[in-house]
Automatic annotation (TrEMBL), chain B:
Annotated transmembrane regions: none
A Pfam family annotated for this UniProt entry: PTS-HPr
Compartment(s): Cytoplasm
One GO biological process term: phosphoenolpyruvate-dependent sugar phosphotransferase system
UniProt superkingdom: Bacteria
InterPro entries, per database record: HPr, HPr-like, HPr-like_sf, PTS_HPr_His_P_site, PTS_HPr_Ser_P_site
PANTHER family named in the record: PHOSPHOCARRIER PROTEIN HPR, PHOSPHOCARRIER PROTEIN NPR
Keywords, sorted A to Z: Cytoplasm, Phosphotransferase system
GO cellular component: cytoplasm
Name by which UniProt lists this protein: Phosphocarrier protein HPr
Limits of the HPr domain: 1-85
Job description of the protein: General (non sugar-specific) component of the phosphoenolpyruvate-dependent sugar phosphotransferase system (sugar PTS). This major carbohydrate active-transport system catalyzes the phosphorylation of incoming sugar substrates concomitantly with their translocation across the cell membrane. The phosphoryl group from phosphoenolpyruvate (PEP) is transferred to the phosphoryl carrier protein HPr by enzyme I. Phospho-HPr then transfers it to the PTS EIIA domain.
Length: 151, 85
């Protein structure tokens, strides 16, 4: 069993509320999302592990048991090409749950006409492996969902 | 081993929707399927974690491989997804 934390402070919502079918239809995997508060802040690692992929707008952390969690900061934010995002760690770094990984400003993303909603996805997990822990207001580092081990 | 070599044309590379579609299609096939970036190490094409970790960008060449009955059909479909603009 693994607890996956909210990477940002805001409002926890179901993944199907994310305005991108890649996430809302669970194409990438099951999980939850956080509608971030509209102030500049830092997205933290949702689990303890190793950063295997780090883009300004998205990152993947793999825990010691091999399970990977994707944090995607905003919708279509790949188009921003890193503008407004600052990476605070590097690929290959070990991070603790709650450790800052990317600094960004959800208000700026929203001002550019994009949703800053953060999808948090359990990669390669069956939908039934994920149990929601929070809906509504959450702080970065609060438990967001639980991921049962399903090899 | 049957394989296909294609150039990834999607603007976002093999991420987001193309990656999800690719992995979902691969996962439905009853064969072991791998994908490699260029001459790199092949990884499990049915794992979204593996495919996202490959970090395939637009213009990169990928090699998709499988063995067994139906390999040609599934590889044709995967090659089409991977090379779609």
């Amino acid at each position: 069993m693994m607890t996956v934390m909210a990477p940002v402070t805001g409002t926890a919502v179901d993944l199907d509320a994310v305005p991108d079918p890649v996430f809302s239809k669970g194409l990438v995997g099951p999980g939850m999302a956080v509608e971030p508060e509209r102030t500049a802040g830092r997205a933290v690692s949702p689990i303890t592990g190793t950063i295997v992929k780090l883009h300004p707008h998205a990152f993947v952390v793999v825990g010691d048991d091999g399970r990977g969690v994707l944090v995607h900061l905003g919708i279509d934010t790949v188009q921003l090409r890193g503008e407004g995002f600052e990476t605070l760690a590097a690929e290959g770094d070990r991070v603790g749950a709650g450790q800052p990984v990317v600094a960004w400003d959800p208000a700026r993303v929203a001002a550019g006409g994009r949703s800053p909603v953060c999808a948090v996805v359990a990669l390669d997990a069956p939908a039934e492996a994920v149990t929601t822990l929070a809906r509504g207001p959450v702080r970065a580092g609060d438990g967001l969902f639980r991921w049962a081990w399903a090899p | 081993m049957t394989q296909r070599q294609v150039t990834v044309e999607a603007e976002v590379g093999l991420h987001a929707r193309p990656a999800a579609t690719f992995v979902q299609t691969a996962a439905k096939a009853p064969l072991d399927i791998t994908i490699a970036k260029g001459s790199g190490k092949p990884v499990n094409a049915k794992s979204i974690l593996s495919v996202l970790s490959l970090d395939v960008r637009k213009g990169d060449i990928v090699v998709i491989a499988a063995e067994g009955d139906g390999a040609d059909e599934i590889l044709d479909r995967l090659a089409e997804i991977a090379s779609a603009p």
